[in-house]
Write a structure and sequence with these properties.
By secondary structure, the protein is of the alpha/beta class. The chain has helices at about 15-25, 30-40, 45-55, 65-75, 80-105, 135-150, 150-160, 165-170, 180-195, and strands at about 5-10, 30, 110-115, 130-135, 175. The protein has a single domain (about 5-195), classed as P-loop containing nucleotide triphosphate hydrolases (Rossmann fold, 3-Layer(aba) Sandwich). InterPro entries: Depp_CoAkinase, P-loop_NTPase.
């Protein structure tokens, strides 16, 4: 039987690092951000609907999505973010359901649904258990600025547009704090895997 972990947390909190650690121990990672980007590629339904709803001015000359321009709009205008979510959430949900079905058919031991909107997107019922990754607000802001090449104001707007960690924590089974090194985070995940009997003999 496939164990399904719902993994959430604020943007740039360390979810992807946790996913990479779990993947190194054999987990199948179903990454909501990766799926969203796939759906926003030229020819995909997500991009077609975005173009229809927001206009061609949010596309680059080659027909790809201008993520920076769209991000500046939706993360400063809640009504516009709601429009984008109305487009993307059902498409992402459908793709995640498909990926999860494939993982179960393949008898994968551990499947991880890695998505910031785990709670808002109604994924909790799909999960065996849920986990939130948290870090300090200062580290989160710096991580996001450096990773996405954003100004402080742009990064803070993206953080503010999401559910707070305080609210997320009410809905998850476990909270993992990511304020140290990657090695420290890895040890925490090994401890979690061990507690769920999800580790094989390959662990060192």
């Amino acid at each position: 039987m496939t164990y399904v972990l719902g993994l959430t947390g604020g943007i740039a909190s360390g979810k992807s690092t946790v996913s990479k650690i779990l993947a190194s121990y054999g987990a199948e990672i179903i990454d909501g951000d990766v799926i969203a980007r796939q759906l926003q590629q030229p020819g995909e339904e997500g991009l077609r609907q975005i173009e229809f709803q927001f206009g061609k001015e949010y596309l680059n000359a080659d027909g790809s999505l201008n993520r920076t321009k769209l991000g500046d709009l939706v993360f400063n205008e809640p009504a516009e973010l709601a429009k984008l979510n109305q487009i993307m959430r059902p498409l992402i949900h459908q793709r995640i359901i498909e990926r999860l079905k494939q993982a179960k058919e393949a008898k994968v031991k551990l499947a991880v649904i890695d998505i910031a909107l785990l709670i808002e997107g109604h994924y909790l019922d799909l999960c065996t258990s849920t986990m939130m990754i948290e870090t300090t607000s200062e580290k989160q802001l710096l991580n996001l600025m450096n990773r996405n090449h954003l100004s402080k104001e742009q990064a803070q707007a993206r953080i503010n547009a999401q559910m707070s960690n305080c609210e997320r924590a009410k809905h998850v089974d476990e909270v993992i704090t990511n304020n140290g090194s990657v090695e420290e985070l890895k040890l925490k995940m090994i401890k979690w895997l061990t507690s769920k009997h999800l580790l094989g003999s390959e662990v060192e």
